Amino acid sequence: MSTAAPQTWDEFMEGVWRQNPVFVMVLGMCPTLAVTVSAINALSMGAATLFVLVCSCGLVSLMRAVTPKEVRIAVYIVIIATFVTAVDYAIQAISLALYDALGAFIQLIVVNCIILGRAEAHASKNTPLPAMINAAGMGVGFTLGLLALGVVREVLGAGSLFGVALFGAGFQPWVIMVLPPGGFFVLGAWLLFFAWLERRKLRRAASLTEAGQHV
Amino acid sequence: MSAPSANDKKVIPIAVAAAAAPPPESPTGAMIRSLGLVSAICGLIIVGAYQGTYDAVAANKRIATERAVFKVLPKAKTIAEFLAQPGGGVSRVGAGGTAIPPGSVKFFAAYDESGKLAGIAAEGVGKGYADNVRIMFGYQPDCQCVVGIGVVAMRETPGIGDKIITDKEFLANFTALDVKLKSDLSALANEVRTVKRGSKTNAWQIDAIAGATITSRAVGRAINDSAQALLPRLVPNLDKLGSKS
């Protein structure tokens, strides 16, 4: 596979936009709904997942020639669990408060279907560089997805953004938004928005071709 | 009626599917080799990550503990960790995570700038609404009372149960909560109890937060259980904590 610039960009943008794991593929909903109570949690969860994705896809791709297909899932899981453990230690070293906030969801990155899906569907069939670029795109897409939820939920549910109060003391927080139901509300609203965007694009394309025929 | 008609479409196997020969089976040796290789690489990475972050993680945990103690005992500048043994008596434990023997209670002695004992801090656990509520409370030997609390860990409902951190009226319960011992030092003279909001009459009672009674009760129970276990052993040995050595 060529790694020329347009191809690389395409590889990267697949995860960020066309196949966005949160809004298009609707994968990894467990951390998406659970940790997005604040923007900083969403960002750190996204960064942790991004790191695990890139590293494990790189290693899976490097090992693809010596991995017999019968044991490939075991190999992928060991590789993914390794990098999750490394991230787990790193987050404890950076901030214990953040570690407590993310809770079990750091360890649960092991079973995040985005990562295993990338390893199986892409990294095991490509050379390391495109595999890592594609994984980075997915990771960035996932991070953006989490941020989209986290920002909305924190602003509405706590009246702050990245911990900075936005509205002053008079603001009555919309508490349900940082509770579990709020995750579903915000996710639903975003999915609705992207579906509407997609439809509008199709309608415009259709009316354009129609116009073209009339001319 | 349902006899097969002649128009039934037959699915004709297409050559494409058959063209790809089944891939040859991998030899056992190759499987073991690749699993061994990947385990070796991953083992190295994990051990490296653990070693690389060990100091930072330990320092973080120490800072978190110190911060929790300093919050409930604002005058404290340094802390030392002690164990109250089951048979009475206290012993100093070194920094780091030595295992706590069963029956012992861990507590922290806090010292002020001049090295004098500024108070005792200990953890307590109570069952809250969602999970255990773990709190740290400061104990002042002079007045035999609890002088401050902080939350170590909880999963209470945001906006309701987590008011125990912010609610000023609730926190006012813990400026001088009475935990005096009986004259024979066997137990608390009065159990610490959480009572309905507005019905606090005695210094050993805690006024609950309206709407967050379960979490308020968890705090009361956490203090009571921990104080019942710790204070009868601690108070006779206060002089042993002395000043910072």
What would you note in describing this structure?
The complex is a heterodimer of chains A (215) and B (245). A two-stranded antiparallel ribbon of chain A has the order 1-2. In chain A, strand 1 and strand 2 form a beta hairpin. Chain A has helices at residues 5-18, 29-34, 39-62, 72-94, 96-102, 113-121, 128-158, 180-214; strands at residues 160-161, 164-165. Chain A has one domain (4-163, 173-214). Chain A is mainly α and 215 residues long. The relative contact order of chain A is 0.17. Chain A contains eight helices and two strands; from the N terminus they run αααααααββα. By secondary structure, chain B is of the alpha+beta class. Chain B has one domain (61-241). Chain B has six helices and nine strands; from the N terminus they run H-H-E-E-E-E-E-E-H-H-E-E-E-H-H. In chain B, the strands form two sheets. In chain B, strands 2-1-3-4-5-6-7 form a seven-stranded antiparallel sheet. Chain B has a two-stranded parallel ribbon with strand order 8-9. In chain B, strand 5 (132-140) and strand 6 (145-153) form a beta hairpin. The model of chain B is unreliable at 1-6 and 14-18 (pLDDT under 50). The chains are: A mainly alpha (215), B alpha+beta (245). Chains A and B meet through helix 4 and helix 5 of A and helix 2 of B.
Summarize the structure.
The complex is a heterodimer of chains A (215) and B (245). Chain A is mainly α and 215 residues long.
DSSP strand tally of chain A = 2
Number of structurally distinct domains of chain A = 1
Strand order of the largest sheet of chain A: 1-2
Along the chain, the helix and strand elements of chain B come as: HHEEEEEEHHEEEHH
Please give the number of β-strands of chain B. Answer: 9
- Show unreliable segments of chain B: 1-6, 14-18
N to C succession of SSEs of chain A: HHHHHHHEEH
Mean pLDDT across the residues of chain B is 82
Give the DSSP E fraction of chain A (strand runs of 2 or more residues). Answer: under 5%
Flag low-confidence runs of chain A.
none
What is the subunit organization of this protein? heterodimer
Which percent range fits the helix content of chain A?
Answer: 55-70%
| Overall body shape of chain B | elongated
Q: Decide which structural class fits the backbone of chain B.
A: alpha+beta
